[in-house]
Specification:
This protein is of the alpha+beta class and 288 residues long. Strand 6 (235-241) and strand 7 (249-254) form a beta hairpin. It is elongated, with a radius of gyration of 28 Å. The strands form 3 sheets. It has a 4-stranded antiparallel β-sheet. A two-stranded antiparallel sheet has the order 1-2. Strands 3-4 form a two-stranded antiparallel ribbon. The longest helix is centred in the middle third of the chain and has 45 residues, at 82-126. 52% of the residues lie in helices and 13% in strands. The protein folds into 2 domains: 24-194, no CATH class; 198-283, no CATH class.
Length: 288
């Protein structure tokens, strides 16, 4: 079954392409929600990283969690404007990367605030026996990062432990940021390949799927002008559409498992062909 991914030769129905329209609610509600979740993830990752933070693997896991969460928020909110989705990825990754350092900076200030009265009281009690002073606290986030880079970042690898200082510390943070960005971009890229209905503003999803007996598969192959010899032993089917069932409706028929919703093997049906396909499915004895 070979046909153009945008127009099916059997039905001559144009496949849904492009994304949704720009909306105020996406910028005022959905986008801030994504960035807010990313900030929460930054705080959680900092706390978890104090106990478990394998080199290279940990930022990749953070990126996977972030990417999956953004895709889920996009589906739940039926947000289909692709530029807004990519902006959410960039802002959320920035919120995670910068947020980790910011929460670390706030934690350092809180620690100094707790320890300073203890040192002062000890000096009052023991006098000169208490030597030295607390290191001066960072004036801002940039100063905090400079102090951390100067102190060095401990990197634990399978080859041993090393300390990255100065430019090497900054480079390690940059690599961590890229490792967070990579899986988030890949997951969002795959998610945006799914069709989106601009009429009702919803993502296409699987409504029916299952295994068809050979007779029903043959009738559907004839109806859609597909090679019937490929379905002699039965076939898998998949029906996808938007929330309100707008035209076109996607349908796949394969001797293997149903193909993905963005695959060129999807046949796009108009209302008449969709009704006939659904009638054949209802009459079949296969699973619905």
């Amino acid at each position: 079954m070979q046909h153009d991914p945008q127009t099916c030769q059997a039905s001559q129905t144009t496949a849904p392409v492009g994304g949704g329209q720009w909306t105020w609610w996406a910028w005022c509600l959905w986008l801030p929600a994504c960035v807010g979740f990313a900030a929460l993830l930054a705080w959680a990752s900092l706390e978890i990283g104090r106990h478990f933070s394998p080199l290279l693997v940990f930022p990749l896991l953070i990126g996977l969690v972030l990417g999956a969460s953004l895709v889920a928020l996009m589906r739940l909110g039926q947000m289909g404007h692709r530029p807004t989705a990519w902006l959410a990825v960039l802002l959320s990754v920035a919120a995670v990367v910068v947020g980790q350092h910011y929460f670390g900076y706030r934690s350092a200030l809180a620690r100094i605030k707790r320890e300073d009265p203890i040192v002062r009281r000890a000096r009052q009690v023991f006098g000169d026996l208490v030597q030295g002073d607390l290191a001066p606290g960072p004036r801002n986030l940039a100063d905090y990062l400079q102090q951390r880079a100067a102190q060095g970042r401990t990197l634990r690898t399978v080859f041993g432990t090393c300390t990255a200082r100065g430019p090497w510390a900054w480079s390690s943070w940059a690599i961590d940021g890229l490792l967070v960005l990579l899986p988030a971009v890949v997951m969002m890229g795959f998610a945006l390949r799914r069709p989106f209905c601009g009429r009702c503003g919803s993502w296409y999803a699987t409504r029916r799927r299952g295994r068809l007996p050979s007779e029903a598969a043959r009738r559907l192959a004839e109806e859609l002008q597909l090679p019937a010899e490929n379905v002699t032993g039965g076939a898998w089917y998949r029906l996808i559409c938007c929330n309100q069932g707008c035209t076109p409706t996607g349908f796949s028929l394969s001797c293997k498992k149903p193909v993905a919703a963005h695959s060129p093997e999807i046949v796009w049906l108009d209302d008449r062909r969709r009704d006939r396909v659904i009638k054949i499915l209802d009459q079949s004895r296969g699973p619905q």
